[in-house]
Amino acid sequence: MKKTILTMLLLSFYSFTNAQITKGNWMVGGDANYTNSKIINNDNEILGSGNTVRIFPNIGYFIANKFALGINGNFNYGKANNTVSNIVYGGGPFARYYFLKPENRINLLAEANYNYYSSKTQGFDSNKGSSYRFKAGPVVYFNSSVGLEMTLNYLSESFSDGTAKYFTVGFGFQIHLEKQLKI
Prior knowledge:
Blueprint: H1 2-18, E1 26-40, E2 46-64, E3 67-80, E4 84-98, E5 106-121, E6 127-141, E7 146-159, E8 162-177
């Protein structure tokens, strides 16, 4: 009897861990990163510096095993030279792919997203722009539904006054909402 119960528990655990990145499931979560930047001209003079915190909440749906499409938000707060603050908000679509088998506790992901945003810098007119971001890295699952992501990110922003490009390290959580199992 004990062997039967143990076998059933192990099989049910396997089926739940196998379901987290499969077709028909949802994911909800997001990631964040921090940037400390300096703007330096060709004469090696520092023109400015600043700190920015970016938060990217998301919701996605797995249209195929290991492949999700969804919508993400973009919320930034930055402060340049300890005086001027900047707030950014926007959103857009994303596509995400996991490279390893769904049952793995550690997986590798790659994601591309596009955002349209509005920006307000203290003392200046509002600005509209767009950005795209590519990120990749490992995700570690604590259980069948919650994963911690550690990613390398490339972010390119375009706005009316120019462009900005960043390489950052990001951290995020995803909660995978599993489809109902039919018994």
